[in-house]
Design brief:
The protein is globular and about 50 Å long. The chain is built from eleven helices and eight strands. With 242 residues, the protein is of the alpha/beta class. It is 39% helix and 15% strand. A hairpin with a 2-residue loop joins β2 and β3.
Amino acid sequence: MEILHDVSMTLDEGEMVAIIGPNGAGKSTLIKTIFGLLRATRGRVLFRGTDIAGLPPRALVLMGIAYVPQSNNTFASLTVLENLEMGAITRRISPIRLPQYRAPDAKMQSRMMNDAQIRERAIRTVELFPNLQPKLRERAGALSGGEQQMVALAKSMMLDPDVLLIDEPSAGLAPKLVDMVFSKIVEINEEGTAVVIVEQNAKKALAIADRGYVLETGRNRFEGTGEELLSNADVAKLYLGG
């Protein structure tokens, strides 16, 4: 069954884009398709001029794209530090050969890390998430929901991505924890990582986004800057609760 119908969006270097809309609009399907978890039946997904539609997630990670799923995004039985190390496992393994690449290109090859580089990356990542510093030896499953989301974000940043796709980061979190998670997403973006955020909390997502897209029944309904969409009367009535 087709869920998306001629959806079109763009993301510029260092930009943050929010994707909002009602349940069933196709928001999560869109970023899963971008990341290769779902296969598009038609259309293209362009990353720096290269069509990446159909490439497996492992290849996209080596090209500079990372993804934080809505749920099951940490290894509950592992410590926080072990989660960070697992976040880089794709970069530790030699890249697979793909029909589109006769050999791994220089950009993909440069993303490979040895164990010493992974440890160094973990140190830099913890500096970005100082609240995790005292919890590195604790099991991720024992942390609060907000802390687990921080671990998920930190794990994705072990990949040093150019683009970070985040699916529903506030799901199930108390308001205070939502503020903490959104603040960290802004900080990640300000560090230079472009972000696509799918979020039910439309007001918060648009408030931090440079631009936004409203999807409805798998189609583009509205698009504009975050500020424009927040002040759009139709968007407010239909999707922002007033």
